[in-house]
Amino acid sequence: MTAQDVKTLKALAAPRYALPPHQRKWKIGTTGFMLIMHIGAVFALLPRFWSFQGLATLVILYWVTVLGVTLGLHRLVAHRSFTTSKLVERIFVLMGSLACQSGPIEWVGLHRHHHKFSDQPNDHHDAGRGLWWSHSEWMLHEIPALQEIDRFAGDLQADPFYRWLDRWFLLLQIPLGIGLYWYGELHAINGGGLGLVLWAIPLRLTLVYHVTWLVNSATHAFGYRNFDCPDLSRNCWWVAILSFGEGWHNNHHAYPHSARHGLRWFEFDITWQHIKLLRALGLAKRVKEARYQA
């Protein structure tokens, strides 16, 4: 064990002091948006808005959005675990930006910050503060890590496309909503255009939010460990299923630059299967792959 490991373990055991007054205030914009999305998700489940078209829309957009986060924002951009063309990269980042989890620069910067200080007091979703904090409460308050985005995502700051997307990512929901509303009204499906919009935006976003947040919370609390990492990361099978392989979190913290997260034969990794397909098509190159050795 290195001196840095000992320092990290001491930090994990350190008491978590109360947040300073300026951090206790709720971020009105973020909190309000999350409330609206959750309320919209509840309305989407009312019988009057049910339709097979709505379910199909949810499934397809869930796949697009989660894959955009896991393959695009996470494994491709945040960790550079493989390379691809600029066009393919931007397509996947656009898919990930449909998740409305801030823009790509902020997402990548905060994720890299998390790996630098995982489960230490200055980790912005520090699991040492409890399950609710690491799951979602952290984003409802001002966090010091936001002041270090330039330090952790300077490579993306140099790209005008990513700067634009970081500012205007919410606008992506507008053409999506308009198109689905038009389709629903045109084909007179049950619930009409509003039903499709409710299934495609608030219900989808709410599901994707909680699945993503489970990687921050549940996989730092439940499951098993293949590697003795200096943090609380765990491998959690049910989170891995929901998140397309991100639940093999202890593996990821042991080998953060590996494009493959499921390292044992039973650790099925849907995102890794997509990366292998891209590699077979010649679209993914220099793929970094860790392997498990018992």
UniProtKB/TrEMBL annotation:
<feature type="transmembrane region" description="Helical">
    <location>
        <begin position="196"/>
        <end position="215"/>
    </location>
</feature>
<comment type="similarity">
    <text>Belongs to the fatty acid desaturase type 1 family.</text>
</comment>
<protein>
    <submittedName>
        <fullName>Stearoyl-CoA 9-desaturase</fullName>
    </submittedName>
</protein>
<dbReference type="GO" id="GO:0016717">
    <property type="term" value="F:oxidoreductase activity, acting on paired donors, with oxidation of a pair of donors resulting in the reduction of molecular oxygen to two molecules of water"/>
</dbReference>
<keyword id="KW-0934">Plastid</keyword>
<dbReference type="GO" id="GO:0016020">
    <property type="term" value="C:membrane"/>
</dbReference>
<keyword id="KW-0560">Oxidoreductase</keyword>
<keyword id="KW-0276">Fatty acid metabolism</keyword>
<feature type="transmembrane region" description="Helical">
    <location>
        <begin position="52"/>
        <end position="73"/>
    </location>
</feature>
<feature type="transmembrane region" description="Helical">
    <location>
        <begin position="26"/>
        <end position="46"/>
    </location>
</feature>
<keyword id="KW-0444">Lipid biosynthesis</keyword>
<feature type="transmembrane region" description="Helical">
    <location>
        <begin position="168"/>
        <end position="184"/>
    </location>
</feature>
<keyword id="KW-1133">Transmembrane helix</keyword>
<feature type="domain" description="Fatty acid desaturase">
    <location>
        <begin position="54"/>
        <end position="274"/>
    </location>
</feature>
<keyword id="KW-0408">Iron</keyword>
<dbReference type="GO" id="GO:0006633">
    <property type="term" value="P:fatty acid biosynthetic process"/>
</dbReference>
<keyword id="KW-0812">Transmembrane</keyword>
<dbReference type="Pfam" id="PF00487">
    <property type="entry name" value="FA_desaturase"/>
</dbReference>
<keyword id="KW-0472">Membrane</keyword>
<dbReference type="InterPro" id="IPR005804">
    <property type="entry name" value="FA_desaturase_dom"/>
</dbReference>
<keyword id="KW-0443">Lipid metabolism</keyword>
<dbReference type="InterPro" id="IPR015876">
    <property type="entry name" value="Acyl-CoA_DS"/>
</dbReference>
<keyword id="KW-0275">Fatty acid biosynthesis</keyword>
